[in-house]
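Review form for a predicted model. The reviewer records the input and the model, then writes brief findings.
Reviewer: anonymous (R2)
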Amino acid sequence: MNSREDLITSLSNDLQRVRPARNINLLAVGWLLLSALYVVGITHWFGPVRSDAFVQLVTEPRFMLETAVGMLAITVTTLIAFRAAIPGALSARFFTTGVVLMLVWLSCYVVGLLSPALEPSMLGKREHCVWETFIYALPPMLLAFVLTRRLYPLQPVQTAMYFSLAAGMMPALYMQIACMYAPDHILKFHILPGLIVVFVGAAIAWASRPRP
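Model under review:
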């Protein structure tokens, strides 16, 4: 027996059975559904949603479209985040798709500054929506930390930023139903605190990274 075969034999002798890796897409979808139910539930717990919001979803095509694009962008961002935690699971094309969807959704509100999907109104205004958006995103973000720490992210800070973005945008999206609809208000008090969650997640990941 040559040295190469000896090496293979010696390495294989001590191998232990391991469980197959979990389906990363199912894990991502499970986190997304659980987080979305939590965000919707806690939002309703702390106050009523805008009285005409669900009617507007059916009767106002642009409002329905930007909401649907937001849901799709968050879903794809979630898949990006969890795939980034498995080496080789995230393709450049899928990542680019998620970035484009997120930018398209956020640009809806920038365009809305000149041509809003709905007539801007104070109806449904929640006094503390800026804090609600930020705080509601934290438990889903922390849950994602727990789940992805058991995976193998090669770039943990970047991975944390991806799932923190998904976590932050969930309450930001639902606030356009729960709170008043006005693009400037949405950008400042819903989208911005959702984006701040990204930096919080990155800071936590950086501080908890393994030290050499």
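Findings: The helical segments are 3-13, 24-45, 53-59, 61-84, 92-112, 129-149, 156-178, 183-207.
Further findings: The chain has one domain: 27-207.
Recommendation: see findings above.
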